[in-house]
Design brief:
52% helix; elongated
């Protein structure tokens, strides 16, 4: 039984190490600097995991961030350090981020930040929110989001396209059977 527990904890430690390996200190630093530019808060912008976690873990700064982007999107920010109140702040931030346009696959679970399980997903969420902030007249970070580029073709153009054999389907130009012989030739 003790060996089984040791094996399970070994797997958990290995999984956690893999998750932590994806964390980018540079992107974390960029995210914290962006938060400072939006909120005006005086925080450490070092990108190491310890600082990133300490600055964001209670969720208060995250709530202030989304309230600065869109006022009153988070109605109540808890100012205590009690665990469930901090997790409520983080949850309120996540709901606000989704309302501001962050896709669900780019958000994180509350425990990813609160229990420090996956800080990389927190960075991804902040980077995504940073791209959306430009839509609300705030400074943005990361690459500019692509805009919709819809094309309209006439019926004539669409019909002309149906007659063309695309190169993805291959071609038979230059195909013949010269030089092909299967097996041995007949000797007489």
């Amino acid at each position: 039984m003790a060996t089984n527990r040791a094996t399970k904890s070994g797997f958990a430690a290995e999984a956690q190490r893999k998750v932590n390996a994806k964390y980018s200190e540079e992107l974390a630093r960029e995210s914290l600097e962006w938060i400072v530019s939006i909120t005006g808060e005086d925080i450490s912008t070092a990108g190491d995991m310890d600082n990133f976690y300490e600055v964001l873990k209670d969720g208060q700064l995250l709530c202030k961030l989304v309230n600065t982007i869109k006022p009153s999107i988070v109605k109540k920010v808890n100012n205590t350090k009690m665990a469930f109140k901090c997790m409520e702040n983080i949850n309120a931030f996540l709901e606000a981020a989704r309302d501001l346009g962050v896709p669900a696959q780019e958000t994180f679970q509350t425990v990813d930040l609160w229990e420090r399980q996956n800080l990389n997903s927190v960075v991804i969420c902040l980077q995504s929110l940073g791209r959306k902030a430009g839509n609300f007249g705030k400074p943005s970070i990361g690459p500019k989001e692509a805009e919709k580029n819809e094309r309209i073709f006439s019926e004539e153009k669409l019909k002309a396209g149906q007659t063309i054999i695309g190169l993805q389907m291959g071609s038979n130009k230059g195909a013949n059977q010269s030089g092909i012989n299967f097996g041995n030739t007949r000797h007489m």
